[in-house]
Amino acid sequence: CGAVLTYDASAVFVNNVIAGNAAGVSGAVAMGPSASPTFVNTIIAFNSSGLFRPDGSQGVPTLQHNCVFGNTEYDFYNVTDPTGTDGNISANPRFVRVPDPGADGTWGSGDDNLGDVHLRPGSPCIDAGDNAYVFGEFDLDGYPRIMDGDGDAVAIVDMGAYEVQEYTIPGDLDGDGDVDADDRAVFLSTYGRCEGNPAFLPAVDYDGDGCITLPDYQAWLADYRAFNAPPPAVPPSGSANSGSIGSGHRVDPVGVKADVAPVGNLEVGDRAPRPRPQEGPRGAGD
């Protein structure tokens, strides 16, 4: 068995991250035939397999406000998939760095990457938990638990072990409150770089694989487009013809216009910019 084995108990697991584990039967959670564990506000992701319950089991797990995603062999074995009910989701949690066994594919060897399971801006696990199950006032870092991490003025606990302390606009790489050409410039400055290179920026490594590559650019581009998307149509009369209606947009008597103009050729295809010639080929230490 992998990370968790609950045989006959009715254990309760709240605000945990179970990630990067591997085993022959269940990389993440193995339940005995009489076990009825409860998982709440927990992320179970990127293990060799997810939740395992043997055939003929009498115990039934309770799953509420969890994210189960990306487990290699299966997410659920002999467990009813709860996705879409009771606050359960199945989406990339967007860890800062995904745990990985390294090039040899074997945990416990010298090239293991233990990852960083703090949540990135825009993670679907932010403000997605259940406050009623929170134990204690602080997260694993010692920071306050139950914060408003998505900027909607409502404090809801995050899934996982670490609480996002303040809202950050997804894609705002320079921290100036919008997503525009300046953020693209930040992206270009680190594109093609890997961990160990001084120009590598963890905030730009969207997929958490340790290198800034095409998937990262596509993810940033999605954030750019989301921030600069046209707002809903405004009625031609009344007070709606003036005033602010959302981040990055304004309304004027002529009609709705985006404050932020398209950046270069960002809207033409999804190709990432090529690394600058002087960067040279990437290697394991880049």
Describe the structure.
- It is a single chain.
- Mean pLDDT is 81; it is low at 236-272 and 275-286.
- Strand 13 (243-244) and strand 14 form a beta hairpin.
- It contains two helices and 15 strands.
- The chain is globular, with a radius of gyration of 22 Å.
- 8% of the residues lie in helices and 16% in strands.
- The protein has 286 residues and is mainly β.
How would you concisely characterize the structure shown here?
The chain is mostly beta strands and 286 residues long. The protein has helices at 181-190, 214-227; strands at residues 4-6, 12-14, 17-19, 29-31, 38-40, 43-45, 51-52, 62-64, 67-69, 76-77, 95-97, 116-119, 243-244, 249-252, 255-258. Helices cover 8% and strands 16% of the residues.
Keywords:
286 residues, three-stranded parallel β-sheet, single chain, mainly beta, disordered C terminus, four-stranded parallel β-sheet
List the SSEs and their pairings:
Blueprint: E1 4-6, E2 12-14, E3 17-19, E4 29-31, E5 38-40, E6 43-45, E7 51-52, E8 62-64, E9 67-69, E10 76-77, E11 95-97, E12 116-119, H1 181-190, H2 214-227, E13 243-244, E14 249-252, E15 255-258
Parallel strand pairs: 1-4, 2-5, 3-6, 4-7, 5-8, 6-9, 7-10
Antiparallel strand pairs: 11-12, 13-14, 14-15
Tally of separate helices: 2
What percentage of residues falls in helices of 4 or more residues? under 10%
Order of helices and strands: EEEEEEEEEEEEHHEEE
Overall outline: globular
Structural class: mainly beta
What does the main sheet amount to? 4 strands, parallel
Query: How many E-type strands?
Result: 15
N-to-C span: 36 Å
Radius of gyration, taken over Cα atoms and rounded to an integer in Å: 22 Å
> What do the pLDDT scores average to?
81
What strand line-up does the widest sheet have? 1-4-7-10
Task: State the low-pLDDT regions, or none.
Answer: 236-272, 275-286
Report the sheet-strand fraction.
Answer: 15-25%
